[in-house]
Amino acid sequence: MEVLVTLAQIGPGFGEVIGRGIGAILLYAVLGVLLMLLGFYAVDITTPGKLNRLVRDGLPNAVVVTAAGMVSMAFIVVVAIYTSTGGLLEGLLASLIFGLVGIVAQIGGVRLLEWVTGIDIGAVLAAERIQAQAFVVSAAHLALGLVVAVAIL
Q1: Which pTM value belongs to this model?
Q2: Per residue in 48-97, pLDDT tens?
Q3: 7 Cβ neighbours under 8 A, 6+ residues apart
Q4: What are φ and ψ of residue 7, in 5° steps?
Q5: N or C: which end of the chain has fewer CB atoms below 10 A?
Q6: Are 62 and 133 in contact (CB under 8 A)?
């Protein structure tokens, strides 16, 4: 009994569908990674100190806040990609636009919360011991990421 089946035997155009699907996955993955990197740099630029250095040095508040920021950016990027409709190009463009707007809203909201609460985020991130304010800022990142992600829906 021969088990080997060719794509042509499975159905006409099956190989083409798989090829387009793989291409779309790769393109959305690249877009997602780029948006995540942009989100990280947006947090870094708007935060006092060099965030990647603070994280690399293992400062606990910087690690906690950065991790929360990255997860919140992922919420936004995932929902932006999930809600994309139309053809591949339209979907990628919509994901890019919604992702960028979401990142701006996320950063603005967190910075506003820090200002309203009087948190000196630069001092918090540079501290060598964990501080309660880091959890407030981290929670703000996660909460705003969810709010922005649902707003995209």
Answers
A1: 0.78
A2: 888 889 999 999 999 999 999 889 988 888 888 888 777 888 888 988 99
A3: 14, 15, 18
A4: -60, -35
A5: N
A6: no
